[in-house]
Specification:
196 residues; alpha/beta; six-stranded mixed β-sheet; 6 strands; 32% helix; globular
Length: 196
């Protein structure tokens, strides 16, 4: 059996991040491959549904087991928005535009609690599916700070850090983040698949 797993994303930054997070957690000789197939329509109504849509599409295209995730920021005072629409919140798929809209929508708001949410999905060619979800609690800052990371990192200050997510080192972020928690949670399931 091939010992390859497809990372169902076209975002090369995410590929690097996931390789860092997973390291050798998947077991000896398991190779994480990039994905060059078509992007499916993410029309699920939850993070888990969208992660599964992406993983299923990668399995269908490659015939290999696939890992995928869907993530976003859920702001309490906005009823959980932008949520699953985080990447397209401003309609442009631009991080800067999304952040600007979020800050506009929170103008004058004092209570700015929020969470980064991630659902990690693993789908096998036999159609077995697993999802692990994780959250990273914090608050939305009033202006962007830091130039690391991606997405909403510059305006998110985690509860377990003293600065924005964009100011954390890659190692710090990969030790604390919602994505790290979700993928570390699913890693034993992937490892078990390859040892069956």
């Amino acid at each position: 059996m091939s010992r390859a797993v497809v990372l169902a994303t076209h975002n090369q930054g995410k590929v690097v991040e996931l390789r860092d997070i997973l390291g050798d957690a998947l077991g000896d000789g398991v190779e994480l491959q990039g994905y060059d197939g078509p992007e499916p329509v993410e029309d699920g109504d939850t993070y888990a549904a969208n992660a599964l849509i992406k993983a299923r599409a990668a399995v269908a295209h490659t015939g290999l087991p696939a890992l995928a995730d869907d993530s976003g920021i859920a702001v309490d005072v906005l009823g959980g928005a932008p949520g699953i629409h985080s990447a397209r919140y401003a309609g442009t798929r631009s991080d800067a535009d999304n952040i600007a809209l979020l800050l506009t929508n929170l103008e004058g708001v004092v209570e700015r609690t929020a969470a980064f949410v991630c659902a990690a999905a693993f789908v096998t060619p036999a159609g077995v599916e697993h999802v692990v979800e994780a959250v990273w609690n914090g608050e939305v800052l009033t202006a962007p700070v830091g130039d690391g990371g991606h997405g909403y990192d510059p305006v998110f200050k985690p509860d377990d850090a003293d600065r924005s997510s964009a100011e954390l080192t890659r190692a710090e972020k990969n030790a604390l983040s919602h994505r790290a928690k979700a993928f570390r949670g699913i890693a034993p399931i992937v490892r078990e698949y390859f040892t069956e």
